[in-house]
């Protein structure tokens, strides 16, 4: 179930949040027994420290969560989620004066601390419920948390249960939940309706490739989200080694993230017209596999030389982006687990993004800082355009040499978008490699909260 805040009238236990420089004043204001208890247990208000305060009847009278120093807090986010995970089951409220710029972040982190992927094994996240702190938009945070849960569940589900058919089912279920319209083009109908590269990438798999197209809203600016839905990526005939194939269930992380973002937008009833396009395929190996040195003609008419069948994500995105570009949108955003080069550049915790609009980049950067969803703008370096031009065809899907792999992929995708005032591409990882507060190991959303926060500016460009 999506996480929610506890009812505001429910009986609750106070959680005092104390920074290191405020612990002496805090102890001085406590009853003597509680102050001594903190002293005797060695509480120093370090980030992540937690102490329960005993009541005279043996019940929990309160809790004290250490909030550390500004320098310690700068090295992470969602700090109170660690306290939530350590608290006994019950209902709590925050008794502190958190800064305005962190109150919503900490409340969202508490909500997300309750997440656990339990489809295949009974387990649970934090069981400590929180009343919404004063000054936060509880409904907005609950919608964001629900969208993040959807993203995580989709990514965490293995490909045996999250192939193109199941991803389609997830899109139809989301559309039904919000009264959206959705359609699908499947199998050889992709060729009839001019989506040749989606068909080429997915035709070797047991489940037919498809393009999923969801629409919601009938007034306001137009936003189109395009998510890479490669439900499993073997690499095709350029077969991945086992070490690289192990996490490929997450190669539909772009689709999962745009669906989570779409849920946020629709649940909040934002005044816009939303379109979500997801090319859903599995990149498999059979006699029908597309081959190195094949030349594919895209929906836009640009020809693409295949120099690596493992660079398939940009191919399916290209056809979907070409479709998006045929209809005037105010903003087009693509999200994909596209390149390992992006992880080498910024690691697993930052969502690198590309755009030719300085105004769009500034809007995203401000929004990302405001909602603790780290992103980093990468350059669309024009001199590298020659690297994606092989000579025998208009474009090369995998330039040789290994340099600037994320940049050349973004330059490739940009060739298929020309009409929108703003186009942004996010090259995300979609996976939390080690557990952190509010983020267990596994699938995770990246960039969606920053985009949501920036939408008013992006759609006004």
Automatic annotation (TrEMBL):
One of its GO terms (biological process) is proteolysis. CDD domains: Peptidase_M17 (cd00433). One of its GO terms (cellular component) is cytoplasm. Pfam families: Peptidase_M17, Peptidase_M17_N_1. Keywords: Aminopeptidase, Hydrolase, Manganese, Protease. It is an enzyme of class 3 (hydrolase). Signal peptide: none annotated. Its EC number is 3.4.11.1. One of its GO terms (molecular function) is metalloaminopeptidase activity. Residues 308-315 form the Cytosol aminopeptidase domain. It comes from the Bacteria. PANTHER family: LEUCINE AMINOPEPTIDASE-RELATED, PEPTIDASE B. Belongs to the peptidase M17 family. This is Leucyl aminopeptidase. It comes from Actibacterium naphthalenivorans.
